[in-house]
Specification:
Number of strands: 6
Low-confidence stretches: none
Main location: membrane
Strand order of the largest sheet: 1-2-3-4-5-6
Order of helices and strands: HHHHHHEEEEEEHHHH
Subcellular location: Cell membrane
Strand content: 15-25%
Helix content: 55-70%
Distance between the termini: 26 Å
Shape: elongated
Keywords: Cell membrane, Membrane, Transmembrane, Transmembrane helix
Radius of gyration: 28 Å
Largest sheet: 6 strands, antiparallel
Membrane topology: Multi-pass membrane protein
Number of domains: 2
Protein name: Lipopolysaccharide export system permease protein
Length: 359
């Protein structure tokens, strides 16, 4: 039995890590393609760019681990069925319940790993990533500004420029809008230079026109023509306050004890439990469908992934609107019921899913 379980563990984990690597690669490429031009075009090194990407990996490991596990379980056991390995095992008196033991143990391990990742690694990674982006922004403050597009890289400040020289921080034929409490300052100028002094960002402007508007007294609009003008745009705080729940570890969430923190906790808990639940469900379906149904198995795994993710997204958003922090657990509850039902039917061999392939 130990040799059999070792074989199943090997096949299962081999497929799992391959599919997990594929999912992570696809998501990374999607993220990389959306920011590569912006970041690499500003003089940011490839090493810094890759560092930011890698620090973002834990943020989506929570959802990619169950995705990879459900696909690997279905592929592994459908392949074993196609090779008549399951029939050979059962003919030797080995029950499906015993065959499923590696799936259960791997599911438990992945659930524990997901719990640790989502509760501790992910928030710390989010903090590290934000800090590095801020450091890069200090070095290259034109990083999020692009030509002929409106962009807002600092709170309350909007840029538009016709020409940008990111290596030197020069702007030509540009507009900058600064919202300060009840006042709006809009500046149009021919040339400008973005620079940093310690933790402050300054904009040196030449040959421009500034419009000063007080929202409480719009009739008092003032227009100022100038040759040289320097504006202090932003000051980076020495101690960044990471108040959003995505930056909070398990201990910090429990200390907050408000609705948003409770929803975040149950959202992460749902993701943590999902590998075990969807793994058992995938095993049951894999042994219930006919042999040679690899294509059907892959399709079923994709359906499970999509339905689970839709329920998960809907539940976490609805929880905040209705003020019910337990709602994010709905996907695990529904899929848990399905997993228990199909697992019992599979080990008792009372049900066959006639959806293609051959018996």
């Amino acid at each position: 039995m130990k040799i059999l379980h070792k074989y199943i563990y090997f096949e299962l984990l081999k497929t799992f890590f391959l599919t997990l690597g594929l999912f992570v690669f696809v998501i990374l490429m999607d993220r990389a393609s959306s920011i590569a031009e912006t970041v690499l075009g500003q003089g940011i090194s490839l090493l810094d760019f890759l560092s930011v990407l890698i620090k973002g990996v834990p943020a989506f490991l929570g959802i990619t681990i169950p995705m990879a596990f459900v696909l690997s379980v279905l592929i592994t056991f459908i392949q074993m069925g196609s090779n008549n390995e399951l029939i050979a095992m059962k003919s030797c008196g080995i029950s499906l319940k015993k065959i499923s033991v590696p799936v259960v143990w791997v599911g438990i391990f992945l659930s524990l790993a997901s719990f640790y990742i989502t509760m501790f690694v992910m928030p710390e990674s989010n903090v590290a990533m934000k800090k590095q982006i801020e450091q890069l922004l200090k070095k290259k403050i034109t990083m999020s500004i692009s030509e002929k597009n409106f962009s807002s890289n600092f709170p309350g400040i909007t840029f538009y420029t016709e020409k940008l020289y990111p290596q030197k921080g020069y702007l030509e034929d540009f507009m900058v809008s600064l919202q300060k409490k009840d006042k709006l300052i809009t500046i149009f100028a021919k040339r400008g230079l973005l620079r940093t002094v310690k933790d402050s960002v300054f904009l040196d402007i030449q040959n421009g026109v500034a419009h000063f508007l007080d929202w409480k007294k719009p009739e008092s609009l003032k227009v100022l023509n100038f040759k040289n003008y320097t504006v202090k745009l932003y000051t980076f705080s020495e101690k960044e306050q990471f108040q959003a729940v995505k930056y909070k570890t398990l201990i910090q969430l429990l200390k907050r004890n408000d609705l948003e923190a409770k929803v975040e906790f149950f959202k992460r808990l749902t993701v943590s439990l999902s590998p075990l639940i969807v793994g058992i469900l995938a095993f049951a379906i894999a042994v219930l469908i006919p042999r040679g149904s690899m294509g059907v198995g892959v399709l079923i795994s994709l359906v499970i992934i999509v339905v689970y993710y839709v329920l998960y997204t809907f539940a976490k958003k609805t929880a905040l609107k209705l003020g019910i922090p337990l709602l994010p657990l709905i996907p695990d509850l529904l899929f848990g019921i399905l997993a228990v039902y199909f697992y019992k039917q599979a080990i008792n061999e009372k049900l066959k899913l006639d959806i293609g392939g051959r018996w």
